[in-house]
TrEMBL record:
This is InsA N-terminal zinc ribbon domain-containing protein. InterPro entries: InsA_N_dom_Znf (IPR003220). Residues 1-33 form the InsA N-terminal zinc ribbon domain. It holds the Pfam family Zn_ribbon_InsA.
Length: 115
């Protein structure tokens, strides 16, 4: 099996392999980047609740949607059909963000994007 599309939270590299499970059943990963200080990590929500299983394109769309990006612009930048991007945006709009969770992240991302 090929390495999954899991990114190290420290170096954001994809040089990551599964590394057993925690006693609570969570998947553990090992970063194999020699320059990375973290090495072993566990994916945190929302990544381990479905994001990790999505194709990279969809994850990029979701990340942009959460960051408040525009549909047409996102479609252009990711070279995806506008309808596809719009579907994901609309799907996300139906979810109620958990208190202090996604909404706080969204504000942070917006502020960062604004400069
Ligand atoms: Zn790493």
């Amino acid at each position: 099996m090929a390495v999954m599309d899991v990114r190290c939270p420290d170096c954001h590299g994809l040089n990551v392999v599964k590394y057993g499970v925690q006693p609570n059943g969570k998947q553990r990963y090992l970063c194999q980047d020699p320059n990375c200080a973290r090495r072993i990590f566990i994916l945190r929500p929302p990544t381990d609740t479905g994001m990790a299983r999505l194709p990279t394109d969809m994850r990029r769309v979701i990340e942009r949607a959460l960051a408040g990006a525009e549909i047409s612009r996102t479609a252009q930048e990711l070279h995806l059909p506008t309808e596809t991007v719009a579907e994901v945006f609309q799907l996300l709009a139906r979810f109620t963000p958990p208190p202090g969770g996604v909404s706080r992240q969204r504000r942070t991302l917006r502020r960062r994007a604004a400069g």
